[in-house]
Structure to design on (315 residues):
């Protein structure tokens, strides 16, 4: 780790965090969080390894700080949860500059403040040569109201927030070092600067008829299979209804790419996908697009396409 030393770094982090009055965050052996009657706690953790999830020479530390929090906040959003706080554990190589760490923390704190998701603790160690970042998030929902993958019902509509495939196209811009005009900048920003759909998730969880929900991290071609397996249902997707941004459409036309392929298999969108009864769907105020229906059986069908969209697999 840096010259700054672990102690000073933790002090700096501590002084930049805004913590609700009833919570004790950084500074003791544990954080102390009051339990709230009638609520359940949601916990999720994610690890980011240099060389596996990002390349130090490519990534801007501010964006990495933002994104490592964003992907975790998105898991709380996926359950319909409200934020409690996050924990940040990192191993930092000795040759990493103080400036790098400061920029990383700026990105992490920017998103934490935007979504009122206070940093409540963590751990800081040095590593031999690679950066490793592990974020744990805590959220809450009213008892029994978290939205799981196992609750889809036959006859439900399948809906998504936002547009799909932008992040994958942004990655394509980066990897192929394409010239960046307005569209390319917008797509790259969607890749590095995802917006966790926390407000949308909380709002959706208030509607009784919203059954299964999850966030889209590997692309719907892969993620929908979790709902299929956990809920023991099938899903039909009407391919032409998948929401695509104009930026993505133009980019794919120019570069001879299949926009549907990116939208279904690209991953890292961090939008929400949920199933909802047709009656309840009419009451939803959160912006969303209907892309399919839940059916009996156990298959994922792509209506209007003869392709099979599989989504991203980690191993
Ligand atoms: P301990 O010896 O109990 O592990 P540390 O010296 O590691 O204590 O941490 C002291 C305090 O600083 C704890 O409250 C811990 O949660 C917090 N902390 C350590 N590293 C980080 C970090 N990277 N981000 C936020 N809080 C941290
Ligand atoms: Mg420690």
């Amino acid at each position: 780790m840096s010259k700054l030393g672990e102690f000073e770094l933790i002090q700096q982090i501590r002084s930049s965090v805004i913590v609700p009055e009833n919570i004790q965050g950084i500074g003791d052996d544990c954080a102390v969080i009051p339990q709230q009657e009638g609520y359940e706690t949601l916990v999720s953790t994610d690890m980011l390894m240099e060389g596996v999830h990002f390349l130090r020479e490519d990534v801007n530390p501010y964006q990495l700080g933002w994104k490592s929090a964003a992907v975790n906040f998105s898991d709380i959003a996926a359950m319909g949860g409200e934020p409690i706080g996050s924990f940040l554990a990192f191993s930092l190589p000795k040759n990493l500059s103080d400036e790098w760490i400061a920029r990383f923390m700026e990105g992490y704190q920017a998103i934490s403040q935007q979504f009122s998701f206070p940093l409540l603790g963590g751990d800081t160690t040095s590593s031999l040569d690679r950066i490793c970042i592990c974020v744990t998030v805590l959220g809450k929902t009213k008892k029994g109201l978290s939205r799981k993958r196992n609750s889809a019902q036959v006859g439900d509509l399948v809906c998504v927030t936002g547009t799909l495939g932008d992040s994958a196209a942004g990655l394509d811009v980066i990897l192929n070092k394409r010239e960046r005009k307005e569209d390319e900048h917008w797509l790259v920003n969607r890749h590095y600067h995802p917006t966790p759909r926390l407000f949308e998730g909380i709002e959706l969880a208030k509607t009784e008829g919203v059954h299964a929900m999850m966030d889209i991290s590997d692309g719907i071609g892969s993620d929908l299979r979790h709902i299929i397996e956990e809920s023991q249902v099938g899903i039909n997707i009407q391919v032409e209804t998948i929401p695509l941004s104009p930026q993505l459409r133009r980019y794919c036309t120019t570069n001879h790419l299949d926009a549907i392929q990116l939208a279904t298999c690209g991953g890292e969108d961090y939008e929400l996908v949920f199933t909802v009864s047709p009656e309840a769907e009419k009451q939803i105020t959160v912006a969303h697009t209907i892309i399919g229906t839940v059916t009996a059986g156990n298959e994922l069908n792509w209506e209007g396409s003869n392709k099979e969209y599989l989504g991203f697999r980690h191993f």
